[in-house]
Write the structure tokens for this entry.
Amino acid sequence: MTFNEGIQLDPNRVKTSRGGGTGAAVGGIGGLVALLIFMFTGVDLSGVLGGTSTGTVEEGVSLAHCTDAAAANKYVECRMVATAESLDALWTEQLVAQTGVDYVQPGFVVFQDAVNTACGQATAAVGPFYCPGDQTVYLDVAFFDVLETQLGATNAPLAQEYIVAHEWGHHIQNQLGYMSQVDLQDTGATSGAVRLELQADCLAGMWVRHASSTVDPETGQTFLEPPTEAQLRDALGAASAVGDDRIQQKTQGRAFPETFTHGTSQQRMSWFSAGYTGGTVQSCDTFSVSGSDL
Ligand SMILES: [Zn+2]
């Protein structure tokens, strides 16, 4: 989606971090308490992305240039700032109105290579993730290239924004108490883990539904233009590309439903669409539908 001229961005909304140094290599989720984070895909991307650079974590790139819509529409890192502010504005309005719970802004760290979190140290091979321990979304924008080159989606703005909105969805689930009710050791096509991930996809769709009518509280200007059909297809393409069945077929030659953690391509697209169409937290209740309706 395209950000509207007239919005003002606060570059300080997003923190940056860069993993460097010569510490022992910890690939993927090796350094993490794996089950306590919420990853965007069910796979470890070691070997695809960075994955060897750990050790000291330094200050990351400056986002000082991310102050307006032109920057958000041009630079991926500024698109992250604008997306975060749009998500904050949406959830500040909708969460309390729909559920009575006051929205608490999550942290958002855009990192390179590796990052230290309350859930442990992660490399970029984890892909985008949410750590409930520090209520923070972590993302290396290099993942967007992987989405295109390895997973076959289009690296388009709404595809990127859907991923951020999905991780924000995990924060909303954390606030609403869904996260603590799910046994993440339990995998499979109708497991709580899958229901949680599909709900996060639905909450991302809900953001897309409302993003073009949610205003920047600082300027009174709406953040985004309504999505075009082509842009919606970009988001659905990303949702499809990260389905458990699609990824397992690609990496293991066939799908193993008993090991699913995120849902199939079809389910991820369907629940994203349910949030987009329904526009409410209620329409994202993946926990009360039967397994065959999931
Ligand atoms: Zn997720």
Observations:
- Confidence is low (pLDDT under 50) at residues 21-35, 50-55.
- The first strand starts at residue 15 and ends at 19.
